[in-house]
Each structure stands twice: as C-alpha cells, then as structure tokens.
Amino acid sequence: MTSATSPTSTTPVTTPARTSEEAAGGIGSSPVRPDGTTKVRGEFAYSSDLWHEDMLWGATLRSPHPSARITGLDIAGALAVPGVYAVLTHADVPGVNRYGLEQPDQPVLAEDVVRYQGEPVALVAADHPETARRAMERIRVDYEELEPVTDAQAAAEGKGPAVHPGGNVVRHVPIRRGDPRATADVVVTGTYEVGMQDQAFLGPESGLAVPAEDGGIDLYVATQWLHVDQQQIVAALGLPPEKVRLTLGGVGGAFGGREDLSIQVHACLLALHTGKPVKMVYNREESFYGHVHRHPAVLHYEHGADRDGRLVYVRARIVLDGGAYASTTGAVAGNAATLGVGPYDVPNVSVDCWGVYTNNPPCGAMRGFGAVQAAFAYESQMDKLAQACGLDPVEVRTRNAMSEGTVMPTGQVVDSAAPVAELLRRVRDMPLPAGPSGEPDLRRLPGGVSNTTHGEGVVRGVGYAVGIKNICFSEGFDDYSTARVRLQAVGGEPAATVQTAACEVGQGLVTVLQQIVRTELGVEQVTVEPMDTSIGSAGSSSASRQTYVTGGAVRAAALAVRKGLLGRVGHVPGELSVSGGKVVSTRDGVLADIVDVLGDDVLEETVEWRHRPTESLDPETGQGTAHVQYAFAAHRAVVDVDTELGLVKVVALDCAQDVGKALNPQAVLGQIQGGSAQGLGLAVMEEIQTDGGLIRNPSFTDYLIPTVLDMPPMNIDVLELADPHAPYGVRGVGEPPTISSTPAIVAAIRAATGKPLTRVPVRPEHII
Amino acid sequence: MIPFDYRRPDDIGTAVATVTGNPRAAFLGGGTNLVDHMKLGVAEPELLVDVTGLTSRDIERLPDGGLRVGAGVRNSDLAADPLVRERFPVLAQALLSGASGQLRNLATTGGNLLQRTRCVYFQDVTTPCNKREPGQGCSALEGYHRHHAVLGASRQCVAVHPSDLAVALAALDAVVRVQGPGGERTIPAETLHRLPGEHPERDTVLEHGELITAVDLPGLPFGPRSRYRKARDRASFAFALVSVAAALDVAGGLVRDVRIAFGGLAHKPWRARLAEDALRGRPAAPDEFRAAAEAELADAQPLRDNGFKVPMARNMLVSVLTELSAEDGAA
Ligand SMILES: Cc1cc2nc3c(=O)[nH]c(=O)nc-3n(C[C@H](O)[C@H](O)[C@H](O)COP(=O)(O)OP(=O)(O)OC[C@H]3O[C@@H](n4cnc5c(N)ncnc54)[C@H](O)[C@@H]3O)c2cc1C
Ligand code: SF4
C-alpha cells in the first residue's frame, strides 16, 4: 500500500520484482513519458497550435435556439465581407448530410430545423478569425422558434412532441433476471438525480484541414478515434476513404468528449471548397456547445433484502437525457442497465433504462459512461439498506459483493477476478486522517483559504462506495486494433518502431506501447510513429480499452517479429528469448547480438488483434454475455462539513483498485488520481446548468472544476490480479475510479450531516 | 469584438475630458473585466482611455491613521501592503479571497470597484436583461439565479455586485475620490453602488466620464480586529455566494463599536446598519450576534433557488463576530 502526504508524492504500487534481463523501460516500470517534459514546459504542440502558411480560419455559425424551424438563410452579406473565402450551408455538403456514432441522425449543417442551442448552421472561411466572426454576424438566419422538449422523463413516457421522426426513445434496455415479483423483509427506495457533467478537457476542439492534389484532404485533428472520424467524414464528403487521410494532432484531454465529430467535416468542407488549408479552433465557450456531455439522469430504485442485509431483489427505472442527437446514448443506456445493480450478487433483478431525445445539449461519452449515474443511485441505496438493517456500510456491501463466478443480471458469468469485498476491506483498513489539532491549516478546512471557518461547526463524516465498469466495447461490437512493429539495426543498435492509429489523448498510451515492445523484443530504442489512418483502425481511446486492445495488438505484432528474428537463428538447443539487445538461449546464454541476426534486413509484422467476442443483449430480457471484462474500484471518502455554511472539504479520498497488471505503475496512479478528482467534481461542484434547453454557464468562471485545494492527497492501493483472458492480465484502469469516487464522497457528507442528498452535485443549499 | 481606438493621455484632465465628451469611450484599468465584456459583446466602446499610467499607484499614510489608495494600485500590491495588512486586515483578506493571482496582478483598485455583475444573463447578449438593455426584462427572475440577490432587489433586476474589495471598503467607511469634468468630489464607498430600482442599467452613482482617482481609508482604531469571510462553490477562484466584512471593538464584554457589510446579497455591498445599531452597547455574545443578524436579514426576499443565502449570511456573521470577540477578549 502507498501512503502519501501530497497528491503528487504517491509512490507505487504492489509490483512484483523484475528480473534483471528485462529491457530497461519495459512493462512494469514507469519510464519518462516522451511527451511529459514538453507538456510541463508548455512546449508541446497541441492541435490548436497547428499552422500552415497560407491557411484560412474557419468559424461556425450556431443556432441560438434549442428548437426552431429555419425559415430563411441568407449568406450574401457574409460573402461580401472582404477577406471571406467561403460561406457554406447544408446545401454545400456533397455527401450525406448526416453523421453519428450509433446512428447518422445529426446534420453536418442544419437543414430546416435546429434541435439544440449551438447546432451548426453555417460555416465561414476567412483570412483571419476576426474576419470570420464579423462575416458570421452578416449571415441572416430566420428562425421560427418552437417550444423545446426538455423533460427527459416525459420523453421516456412518449409524451410531448417528437424531436426526431421515430419518437423520443433512443433506446430502452430492459434487464430481467429471476422472479419479477420477489418480495423481501427489508425494502428501501429512493429517487436520485445526476446533473450534466462536462469533460472540461483543457485543449479545445481544433484541427487543420489541408486540401491535397489528388482532390482529397489531409486532416490533422485532436480526436479519440481516427477511423470512426474518417468513416463519418467520408460519408459527408462523398469521397472514397483513401482520399480522406487523418493524422492525430496533439490532444489536450478527451474523457469521451472527442468521440463525436466537432470540427472534422466542417474544416474539410471549407478546405475543399476554397482549395486552401483551413484551421478551426473553438474557444472555451464554443467548446461547451461543441461536444457532448455526461447524460443527466433520474434514477428510481427499490432494493429488497432479508434482515441480514442480503439482497433479494433490485428494481430500477433509469432515464438518461441524451439531448438532441443520439451520439452514444444507446451504449450508455446499455451500460447503465447492465451495470445497474452494481458489483453485487442479486438473484432477482428488473431494470429498465431509457435513453431519450430532448432539445437539451447532446450527451454521449464521458469517463464512466453510464456506470457513473447508476453507481450514484445504487451506492446511495446500499447505504440506506445498511441503515435499515443496522449494518455498517462496508459490511452490507461485502455481504452482497459479487466475486469470480457470480452470475450477472444479464446471465453473464464473471470469469476472472472480482475482488469487490477485498477492495472494500482494503480501503476500510487504511489509516484515517487525523482530525484537526492545534491551529488548523485553513487549506484543510471547508471553505479553504476563504477563511470561512476555523473549525467551529465542522463535522466529519466517512463514506464508502464501490463501483463496476465494463472494459472494452460491448454487446457484440467487433472491437479490434491494428499494429505494425518493425525491427532493424540503426547505427549498430537494434531499434524498433511501432505504428498504430491509437490516439494518445494524454493517458500515456505512447509510453505503454514503447514498454511492450521493449519487453517483447529486448530492445531499448523504440519509436512510436505518429498516429494516422495509413494503418488500420485501433478503435477508440475510450472504454478503458486502449492498453488492453492496442496493447494486445502491439504485443502480438512484436511477438510475430520476435518469432521471425529467432527463426533466423536456426535450430539450437534450449529455448530462445531476446533481452538487452541479444538473443539468449536458456541453455547457453547469449548467442548473438540482435543486430547481427538482423544484418541489413528489416523485420516487420502487422497484426489485427481482437479480444474475445461478446454477445448482444436479448431485447426483451437483457440476457447475454455482453461484456469482455469487468473492473472494480472502491473509495473511502472522509469529509469535513461546515454545517453552518454548507461547505464541504474532502479531507481524504482513498482508493483501492484491481488493475490486473500495472504495465506502467505511475500511469496507473495518474489515472486513479485523475479519475477520482473528476468524481469529486461531480460530487460537489461540476454541473452544466441548463434552463429551457439553454446552457447558462459555458465558461470556466461559471462551470467550476476542482482545483488543487479541493482535491485531497490520496492513499492508493493497487491490486494486480491478472485476468487470464487479457494481454499481460491487464484490466482497464481509466474509468473505475471516477465511478466510486462520487458516491463515496456523498455518503461521507450524508454521514456528517444526516441530510438525504439525493442529487449530485451537492451544493451548500442542500446542506445548510 | 468591435474595432476600437486606444489612447493613453498624459494627464487626468485630458482623460476625463476625452471620456466625458464621448458617450462610447471608456476608461481602461487592468482590463480584466472590461476586455471580457468587449469579447462577449456586453460592452462596445469605440475608444479606450488607458488610465493605469495616470491614476496613482501609491498607498499613502493619512494623518488620522488612515491610508489613501491610488486607483491604479494593483489588487496584489494592495493586499500585500504591510500597513494595509496591519491596520485593515479585512481589506487584504477580501482581495486575496477574490479571483486568482494572475488576475490580481492586473486588476486595479478603480477597476475592481467598477467591475460589473456576474449574472449569467447579463453576460449573454442573446438573453433579455434590463441591466444591459433597459426594458428587455430580467431573465434571472425565473431563471438560473442561485447567485442572485436576497436584499434590496427590484423586479427589474436581482443581480449582485461581485467585488470582494467593495464589501470591505463599505464596512471600513472608505471614501471614493472622483475626478469629473467639473472637478473633484468624494463619495462614501457605501453609497458608490446603487440598488437597482427602476434603473438597473446604472451600477453606481458615477456619471459617465467621472474617474476614480483614489480611495481613502479613514483611521479606524479597531481596524486590526477585522475579518473577511467568503463562502463559495469551491475552495478558491470563485465568486462569493455570501461574504461578510466585519470589524469589532469590545470593551468590558460589551460591543463598543462594530462595522459590518455583506457581499453576495445585494446589488451593492450591503452595509448592515440595522445589525450594527442592534449590537452597539450590547454584550458581545453569540445570541446577540444572531439576533442582530436576524434583524438585518428580516426583510430578505429570496428567489426560488437562493433562499440558502439567508441562513448562510446569518451563520457567517455570527461566526465571524464570535471569533472577533474572542480575539478581542484575549487582547
Ligand atoms: C475568472 C475571474 C474570477 C474573478 N473572481 C473574482 C472574485 O472572486 N472576487 C472579485 O472581487 N473579483 C473577481 N474577479 C473580478 C476582478 O476582480 C475584476 O475583473 C478586476 O478587479 C477589475 O479590475 P480592472 O482594473 O481589470 O478593471 P477593468 O476591466 O479595466 O475595468 C472595469 C471597469 O471599471 C472602469 N474603470 C477602470 N478604472 C477606472 C477608474 N480609475 N475610474 C473609473 N472607471 C474605471 C472601466 O471603464 C470598466 O468599466 C474575477 C475576474 C475573473 C476574470
Ligand atoms: S438580474 Fe439584472 S443583470 Fe441579471 S438578467 Fe436580470 S436584469 Fe439582467
């Protein structure tokens, strides 16, 4: 276990000792990230820094209304502005004016209606961003405003006007297991709400589109999945895939908010139209309109248990507000439903989850993806159950904890480690922070440096939560990654290169891929090539899947290269391996330098790698082995609450998580700290405020995210229980800590205040 | 942003005459509020007259133990000044609880006082707002208004003034020195800002073209026993939900004198005269503090979602006075 006094000084991690022959910087170590220094020094080139001589600036005219009919559109005034090169509307979209991750329901540019505030209506390319802005003011759009649909609950019930022709239910996911009429001695019910959270990545949407001589386009862009962007761009531009080439720009965070298209098609349209490179960069305000958010949710739960607190049944009805377009609402609903009872063994389950259309801002992927909303509700319920049964919150959870072999509500049998009870015990047994003594440090009190309290009226509370997340893409999706590994001698040293289209979004993937190749090929010098579409898809940098899937692909490619290399040594006694730049035999030790075996040849292998397949869910019963892998994290939060002012200071936020295998222990800690902080944000401050479908706080002055003063130091305990089905035994790391962090903090605030707190974020007005 | 001219006149008289003579001219301090408003389209001046080189950047001692703060003094410098910290800790604390280090390095004393409300509708030109465009209506009344006023508001506008500095100045009986086309005048800080009434477009009593040149802090013997407290949605770098500036003088267990102003409750820093009057001569005890706070807040008229400000203000005042009285007793 690690114990730390500041958020940055956490030292890793239960990592088994390495054998000396492994290449330095291989898996299990934490080598310096190639992008680390430049990012810290402010020298890293983000996609917003992209530049091209002769480039134009693109800008997007957006709808000010959440729901309106467009009755007129006149671009003549804008075209007349000197310095303007193009003004485009839907009529200029050469291909299909629709895109979308799950269903193409979203226009590239609005036609006769707009369905959310911020929907793109027209584009301008000009010699300067200011020229573009002024030109946009001269585009006349006549709107006939319509009453926006903003009530997700009503949308789920089929009431009110339809936002799309097929009605407002994007997906309804029922899960039925056991007896739907089961009864129990102890019953607790509750209705919970989760506000709309923003990914709040620091690097706004940006990219540069460069028209090519072959009539195609080269797009440099910050994204999470190059190939799914490419597919959608191709359809909208009406070009063959080989004419739409994407290269990853420097990504300043993603968290799900870059899964959907933003500037991609727009920049390409403008560049193709003008024959010039076009750069687009959103500012912070536009970014709030330019990407999807976390689905706000209303969740009704009923838990039945025996008097010992053992769950008999769980019934739940969950409504997720998907906003104006589908994005990934279907998959988010699938997650909320299949993970809706949490990491517990429940014999009788009846869950219904609806993802719906409204005229609210579109919602889609965000770290935790449906599991976050459900966890706030089911963990709140577990605390209620503990109280009803007179049990300690850890005890009621461990009594019901699922484990390897548990049958999920979907009928899926859990076939690798599920150390739910162990994780809870570990956070429970961590040392508790000392209470304030002597002259208190204001930074550690609620209200922080605002001098709001010196300890009077402050009550401490402790809360627990544990969460579950599916790793990789689920429900029968063909989830794969492509990797190419090359080995050759460069300047007398063996050197490898790795090529994939997997997006480095800040999570440290580039480093992990280097580490894998170092370990498998026994060479230290490993270069990761720029990510682009000249190789096959790597799938998305989401669902905590990239180390698993692209890591798996790179490993497979490296193993294939190694096989070729060792094949050249011919038949020698003993088993052969590579290490420290040499070919080694178990019997005779070092046989040869890798460079000598290679000579002038280049060994290259390309592999398309898949994890084991999953099944879709039965549409009536929700049964099916839909998930590849489950991951778990538990948190214990300690809070001090100033009950007089309603202010909360999270004093400790300790976490235990099973990661299967920590390929890069420091990166694992980074994910757990970052995920926990994002969960803290949702617990006590982060919410996009909407009213009548309109966003009221599209700025970092009004949408607050935690600062270093809000986030406490963490004790982090990392378990490594290998998953036999996954490369190296890895289990996805990025999302689980976001899931349990929020409910643990709220449980702690409840423990301190006795308030019901059924909605996040919790605000002073809910406590005072 | 619309195109604009920028000028840096050589003397105050020219600056005042220039702005007075042009309804679309504005003084520029640190620009941390005005430039934001220009980007948002909330302010559209055609001429900026930079006064940061004209107004004093000095903090001078006054004969009565007070201080004169030049309008060009940066918020960081004011907060760090040893005399300010010693004589008027409430002022330094108020400044340091506002904005961020970078912003305070730029923000000026004059500009800070005249920063405008953070009402989200005021800053969004696509929504109706009487303060921006009189007669349009007030979107906050039925909209997103948890930050808004509970005291002294009108149906025309329920915005609050966001400055922390201004709250401390109101409590300290500061005097704002103003240069206008007709010469100099002084305005008590407490009355610089207005209640919205029928004219929410007017934040202050200043006329267009009047320049703040300095702020006088009269000597206050119990100034060292003063505090600023601020409740906000995160531990730093956020505007006040409620704040209080207080100074307390206790003798023989009785309140000899007291100064109290609230922030976050009204369209102006809310000098709590009722509470002050209720406390003078009374025992310095928590139930007295509570009664005084309740007297001050009795007329509060919360909106749908900001009722929490009333108990928050009450509890904050009780707690800060209790702390000050303990310190006073120990002294
Ligand atoms: C993200 C953010 C967070 C913030 N948080 C806080 C906070 O918590 N608490 C807080 O109190 N403030 C906060 N602020 C506001 C900040 O304090 C103000 O922006 C700043 O004090 C304004 O000073 P300035 O010199 O930059 O004014 P400017 O922007 O230059 O001017 C503001 C106004 O004053 C006028 N003006 C300037 N100088 C004079 C003068 N001498 N005489 C007459 N008129 C003049 C200008 O014409 C303009 O109308 C925050 C600001 C930001 C951007
Ligand atoms: S409260 Fe005042 S500033 Fe806000 S919308 Fe109403 S009138 Fe405008």
Automatic annotation (TrEMBL), chain A:
Ranges annotated as biased composition (Low complexity): 1-18
Signal sequence interval, chain numbering: none
Disordered: region residues: 1-39
GO molecular function: iron ion binding; oxidoreductase activity
Matches recorded under SUPFAM superfamilies: CO dehydrogenase molybdoprotein N-domain-like (SSF54665), Molybdenum cofactor-binding domain (SSF56003)
One Pfam match: MoCoBD_1
PANTHER family assigned to the protein according to its UniProt record, in alphabetical order: XANTHINE DEHYDROGENASE, XANTHINE DEHYDROGENASE SUBUNIT D-RELATED
Name of the molecule in the record: Xanthine dehydrogenase subunit D
Automatic annotation (TrEMBL), chain B:
Keyword set, alphabetical order: Oxidoreductase
UniProt GO molecular function: FAD binding; oxidoreductase activity
InterPro entries, per database record: CO_DH_flav_C (IPR005107), CO_DH_flav_C_dom_sf (IPR036683), Diverse_Substr_Oxidored (IPR051312), FAD-bd_PCMH (IPR016166), FAD-bd_PCMH-like_sf (IPR036318), FAD-bd_PCMH_sub1 (IPR016167), FAD-bd_PCMH_sub2 (IPR016169), Mopterin_DH_FAD-bd (IPR002346)
Keyword Oxidoreductase: yes
SMART domains reported in the protein's UniProt record: CO_deh_flav_C
Source organism, top-level taxon: Bacteria
Annotated protein name in UniProt: Molybdopterin dehydrogenase
